[in-house]
Design brief:
InterPro entries: Beta-lactam/transpept, Beta-lactam/transpept-like, PBP_dimer, PBP_dimer_sf, PCN-bd_Tpept. Its main location: membrane. With about 650 residues, this protein is an alpha+beta fold. The chain has 19 helices and 24 strands. Strands 2, 3, 4, 5, 10, 18 and 19 form a seven-stranded mixed sheet that branches. Helix 4 packs antiparallel against helix 5. The termini are far apart.
Amino acid sequence: MASSRGQARARTTGSARRTYAAGTRSAAARRGNGGHRGRFSAVRLILVAILLVAGVKLVQVQWFEAGALSAAAERQRTQTIDIPAQRGSIVDRNGAKLAFSVEVRSLSVNLKAFRKNMDDFAAKNPGTKKTFDSETAAAAKYIAAKVPSQLTEQQLLDLFHKQASFTYLEHNVEPSVAADIQKHFAWVEIEKRALREYPGDNLAANIVGVANWRTDDKDVSKHNLHGLVGLEQSRDNDLAGTPGRMLVNTKNGSDNVVIPGTERDLQAAVPGSDLELTIDSDLQYEVQRQLSDYVQQSHAKGGQAVVLDAKTGEVYALANDKTFDPNDPSTFADAEAMNDRAVTTPFEPGSVNKVVTATGAIDYGVATPESTIQVPGALQVADKTVHDAWTHGTQTFTTAGIFAKSSNIGTLLLAQKIGEERYADLLKKFGLGQRTGVGLPGESAGVVPARSQWSATTFGNLPIGQGLSMTVLQMAGMYQAIANDGLRVEPRIVKAKVNPDGTTVPEPAPKQVQVVSPQTAKTVRDMMRAVAQNGKGLQKGTAPTAAVEGYQISGKTGTGQQVDPRTRAYSDHLYNITFAGILPADHPRFVVGIRLDAPDTTLPVGHSAAPLFHSIASYLTQRFQIPLSDGPSPEVPLIVQ
């Protein structure tokens, strides 16, 4: 019995232990499941938070920052560049073009970007034959064949392999040729350019000047044509126009490689205005040719010539013997050739300046053309002794004879009767010592000593054309006043500006100065006809070779001593040889001024510019069909024996 009870307790105790153990395991399981659920809830909360933050960011990007981000992206792949404006043309008085622009292309390569693209391509395609060297070699060969007159194949290869991030290959390429090159080599970039053409080569080059563009960097805005010298420079604002703006897409914002076909105009370019000049191209050509030939024949260092309209002062021709070709940049190195010496370089004119004394003598009633004056062989002026160009004793000259024979002594005697104050006033009225305002850059005013600075010998120099200086244009301007009944009209070389819309804007009216009365001017003009008189013996003027058959000629010769650069004193062999003439004298149409710089005065063509005047005047009569004079110039006495 006891044994049975013990076994029962044992079974009960074991069962209880099993029940306890099971309960313990069940509680642990419950505790374990609760832990898992806690961790899951935490993860879920974290995920919800992350999704919530992401959602907020997405809303912010898509709704609030979309515009700004889009604009930033657009800025990285777009660029604004200038559109060059069409430069205005320069034409002569008849509409013949002296300068105009044509559209061309420049070829360039972004070497840095192209090398990188080739390296990336080679890395992705091992063993490829398409490399930087193979592509540039093919391009060099193709471009050299398409544009044979410019760089050679080797020169192009050198450009492709130079140590730089960017290079220009060719300029002034025909648009169709450039498009074909880019079609075969898309990495070659194209820029629109304008090429300035000068169809006359050196015709009026010192007047027109030259325009060019810089190629010092990749900024196309710096490639607009800009004037370097001449009217191209001084009237650059009128000719250049206003560049436009274009928006383009780029392959890489830092490399500025433009994607073809993405160009969008933001603002159209405004073309420049045309300039209409007063010059006549045919006459300009002839004056340039004749002047250059005469300078060579006379062994002169140089020369200038000008032709003015006698009434309006318009410049029909303005020439220098040395000039340049604006189509050939190699000629730009000669600074003297590019200098328009006809307006920039004054000189002492010599006896051509005696027209001031002639005018004063008539206007102030000091003399008449027929009145006489005793002219000695020498004249003392302060500490200076003045002589004539030839040796003579005291002779009786008519007033006309004093100027026809170019007597220094006779001129000074008349000037003394005029007086210093009145003479100084005449110099000013004739425009000496003042810029003419012709409209060309670099114009010189010449030099006339201020009245307060005149010394005792000054009035012994000025009336005979020494001690003051003028340009050939100023010299011709004095005679234009005499030709135009005493009314000096400041010369002009630009007639009008023609705007892009076709409207014509005339230049401001030139200033006018009534130097002397019409009657005085006519008397002086008639008196100066004796200069070309071909009388016998002492009745011959200084310039019979200036005469033109069928026309009356009025004018004056000049021989002005130059200062010897070695001694800094007046030279006995270096001269300015000048001539100023009116054609015809009875009905003035043109005024011609000529200066020869230090010709060989021992030569027939070196001691006078009158033969050159004759040649130019003869051409003028034919070119402009000038009617014959009413009759020959009457012969007048010069020296009374």
